[in-house]
Amino acid sequence: MAVWAVLVAAGRGERLGSNRPKAFAKLRDRPLLAESLERLEASDWIDSIVIVAPPGWEEPSILLAEELACTKVVACATGGETRAESVRAGVAEVGDDAAVIVVHDAARPVLPDEVLERVLTALNEGWDGAVPVLPLADTVKRVRDGRIVETLPREELAAAQTPQAFLASALREALGGDLAGATDCASLVETRGRVATVPGDRTLLKVTDLSDLELVASFL
Ligand code: CTP
Ligand code: MG
Question: 124 CA distance to ligand 2 centroid (A)?
Answer without folding.
Answer: 31
